[in-house]
Amino acid sequence: MVSPTLSDVAQAAGVSYATADRVINNRGNVAQKSIDKVREAVAALGYVRNVAAANLSRNRVYRLAFLIPTGTNAFFNRIRNHIRHAAEHLSVDRITVEIIDVSAFSVDALEESIADLAQRDVDGVAIVGLQNPLLEGPLAKLRESGVAVIGLVSDLPQKFRSAYIGIDNMVAGRTAARMTGMAHAGGLGAIQTFVGSMEARDHAERLQGFCDVIAADYPHLTVLDPILTKDDPAVLKEAAGAVLSARSNVTAFYNVGAGNSGLVAAIGAAPENRPFCVVHELVAHSKQALIDKHIDLVIDQRPDIEVNRAFAMLRALLDERDLPPMPDLMPTIYVQDNLPADPLIDIAEAQSR
Amino acid sequence: MVSPTLSDVAQAAGVSYATADRVINNRGNVAQKSIDKVREAVAALGYVRNVAAANLSRNRVYRLAFLIPTGTNAFFNRIRNHIRHAAEHLSVDRITVEIIDVSAFSVDALEESIADLAQRDVDGVAIVGLQNPLLEGPLAKLRESGVAVIGLVSDLPQKFRSAYIGIDNMVAGRTAARMTGMAHAGGLGAIQTFVGSMEARDHAERLQGFCDVIAADYPHLTVLDPILTKDDPAVLKEAAGAVLSARSNVTAFYNVGAGNSGLVAAIGAAPENRPFCVVHELVAHSKQALIDKHIDLVIDQRPDIEVNRAFAMLRALLDERDLPPMPDLMPTIYVQDNLPADPLIDIAEAQSR
DNA sequence: CTGAAAGCGCTTACAG
DNA sequence: CTGAAAGCGCTTACAG
Fold first, then answer.
1. Is residue A280 within a helix (H) or strand (E), and if so which, with residue range?
2. What confidence score (pLDDT) does residue B21 get?
3. Which residue of B lies nearest to A55 if distances are taken between CA atoms?
């Protein structure tokens, strides 16, 4: 039971190889009669196109690009490492990968980078995006020129990308709230929250999800107004330190954004009777803080899986084949006991220093 | 910068294509001088073998098999569904997949099934194994005949398989303990544990990990002796019901094994003031129990990821290429908020009824 | 020990 | 609108 080839199909349909090929790939210029005959033969034989052979024959090379925000953000450094690491194993499949740095959180910079891509010789691109209409023009152009576009970690305007790979930040916030609620075991409490910026959509969504769950299921807990940190460790250290030394009634810390090293430093300076601590993204210092019992939980979006999926998705898109199975990506909960021994986490951090 | 081909290498080395091929694939019968020249050329040009072309030329078809325990166990039904689902998308790559049922937990049955595989025309196999020396004979034969063998979910004797894909059950138990500890917020408590069988290695390991963490970090909690359930829902229902109606001082339930539907039924019958509940494996009824707030946490080993990795691993093994990046698989923690909308979970359950 | 050549299942000009 | 043929990068007999 060897699978049928295109020449089997052609023979069964009574047409030439080339004509069968034209039908299979919708290349046009075929008589309706021929089309019907080929379609029938395909159905009868159960023909399925051999993508590997097709790619070989056109000497297919996938040139992929990732647009990633710059900066010392340990999370994006982790993403970068996962891309590079995956890329090493992908050269076997004739895939070249380029990481393009984009100034973080700047719509203008992102717009320009996307426009530049059209010049570049690229087949597919994954973009850490922003939901901004300014991006629509360059994105439309990119897609017109046949480039596959997906959003990664942070979405693009939906009509201008083929897929989005990332978590739902509302869910991430809800998950953080659930754990914080549980950890109070029915007792009273007050939760001090920290956010980088309320303009950052992901931060706002996480906080929203967090507050929703606390209000619904843990009414004996109070969520205090968030302290704005700009994701700056120094700001976090100072603010958290102030709360701790005030011997307030705060029973938990939830940092919605980045800058965790500052939070950990403040806690390390006053370890007795610290509040329950939840933060986002597993990077070298948050991992170490878990091990040191300075914090309790890390909610992570699994950048390794995100990157792998981005590659799989781009390839499927470029091969014009069905997408591989991809259930929703859900935030993962780490405690000190289920930490992955992922060397890329630590590399990421080393580079960000 | 097109990547060099074997004919580039042959030309650079001053030998024929066939000779270069012999060196690249270690086929032997080549003069040392030729070997050296080819090796140099490979290094100089940065040649990397095109696996797709190689597979095409030998008309490579991968015939893979999975040996999975039978029974109504919802977890293994979930595994089955993931295999079938992945298989649908794999026919494109000339991969055929066969699921072979094996009587659960029977060394004899497993031994026989492995022996049968040698007859069958199979290139690679993933086996839900047992650590039993009886398996070594048939496994050795299988590998001699060139079949790639990996352990899945439960390991085989280590020397007789190329890789193991599954979680560390000690880690799973530790994780369960950490969450249970947190949920007591420093208060006193007693934890009733349930195990299927202390002979089952995975159960014993989970319980061990659980007890270790409670003893080390939550000394104010007591772990009660496990109730033996044989993974039978009826036994669990009865036992848990008895504990609940005794109005004991039990503050938490931890079910190390299967049979959760019985536990949930007992809780559903007496929902007021129920203990904190941790179970293993996300299947339709444990998912529903989370949503219904009958239980608090599910520790899951992500069978979807395990299955995907099993396929990737077997392919890499058969292609004799480097293994793709695979960080340790860690148990995942689910609460009602980060549940995946995975249709295969529910299919699995429907079939097991 | 070495090399020339057919073939894997496709795509792509090219000729008609 | 249709078909014959070269070529993609490899493997595999086969001849020497």
1. strand A276-280
2. 87
3. B52
CA atoms within 13 A on the CB side of A137: 9
pLDDT in tens, A230-278: 889 999 999 999 999 887 889 999 999 988 999 999 999 987 779 999 9
> In this structure, are B67 and B137 located in the same domain?
yes
If you measure CA to CA, which chain A residue comes closest to B187? A185
Q: The tokens of B72 are what?
A: 């109504």
Tell me whether residues B48 and A339 touch, CB distance under 8 A: no
Residues B74-87: tens digit of each pLDDT: 888 889 999 998 88
Q: Which of A57, A72, A87 is the last residue of a domain?
A: A57
B50 near B278, Cβ under 8 Å? no
- The Cα–Cα gap between B184 and B276 comes to 9
CB within 8 Å: A335 and B178: yes
Same domain, residue pair A154 and A260:
no
A179 and A266 inside one domain: yes
Per-residue pLDDT at A322 = 72
| 3-state secondary structure (DSSP) of residue A246 | coil
* pTM score over 0.85: yes
Q: How far is the CA of A56 from the C1' of C8 (A)?
A: 11
Q: What is the pLDDT of residue A26?
A: 84
Chain A from 243 to 282: CB within 8 A of any B CB: 276
Interface probe, candidates A182, A213, A218, A305, chain B, greatest B C-beta count within 10 A: A182
Q: Count of domains in chain A? A: 3
Q: CB distance A331–B338 less than 8 Å? A: yes
Residues A225, A194, single domain; the answer is yes
A22 touches strand D (CB under 7 A): yes
Q: Which domain holds residue B26?
A: 6-57
Say yes or no to pLDDT of A295 above 80. yes
Whether residues B147 and B247 share a domain: the answer is no
Q: Is the domain of B197 the same as that of B320?
A: no
Chain D, protein-covered positions (CB within 7 A): 1-5, 7-13
Q: Catalogue the E-assigned strands of B137-289.
A: 148-152, 163-165, 189-195, 221-223, 227-228, 252-255, 276-280
| Amino acid (one-letter) located at A228 | L
Q: Name the H helices within B220-272.
A: 233-245, 260-269
Q: What is the pLDDT of residue A2?
A: 67
Amino acid at site A320: E
- With 70 as the cut, is the pLDDT of residue A350 above it? no
Average pLDDT for residues A336-342, to the nearest whole number?
90
- CATH number of the domain at B295, please: 3.40.50.2300
How far, in Å, is the CA of A321 from the C1' of nucleotide C7? 27
pLDDT tens by residue, B153-205? 988 999 999 999 999 999 999 999 999 999 999 999 999 999 988 888 889 99
